[in-house]
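In response to the reviewer comment on reproducibility (Comment 2.3), we provide here a single inverse folding case reported in full, input and output, so that an independent group could reproduce the run without further information from us. The structure tokens appear first.
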């Protein structure tokens, strides 16, 4: 497989910054493109409550929309337990703490290289 496009990496890093602006915790960025055709990157983050998860989601959706990027799919928003924002090359997973512990995506995708976030 080829290297992920630099544009998808920039998008993933920017999305991580945006999530952090709204107090997302324990951010992890995984480069899954070598392991799957689903996406190039997974951004995984925790929001302390369902309200916080939706706030982070709203911020990401609004800021990316300003740049002309609309999600292909949004799942779980109403419940705020585990929200998935699918932007094609980037899939954002926003969890409440209990959901993140339950699903443990980092373990499931443990072979994917982690990208260092500043």
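Designed residues, in position order:
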């Amino acid at each position: 497989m080829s290297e992920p496009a630099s544009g998808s990496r920039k998008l993933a890093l920017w999305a991580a910054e945006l999530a952090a602006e709204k107090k997302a915790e324990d951010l992890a960025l995984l480069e899954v493109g070598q392991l799957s055709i689903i996406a190039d990157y997974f951004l995984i983050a925790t929001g302390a409550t369902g309200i916080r998860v939706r706030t982070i989601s709203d911020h990401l959706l609004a800021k990316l929309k300003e740049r002309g990027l609309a999600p292909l799919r949004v799942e779980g928003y109403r419940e705020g337990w585990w929200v998935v924002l699918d932007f094609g090359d980037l899939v954002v997973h926003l969890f409440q703490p209990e959901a993140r512990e339950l699903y443990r995506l980092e373990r499931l995708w443990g072979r994917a290289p982690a990208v260092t976030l500043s």
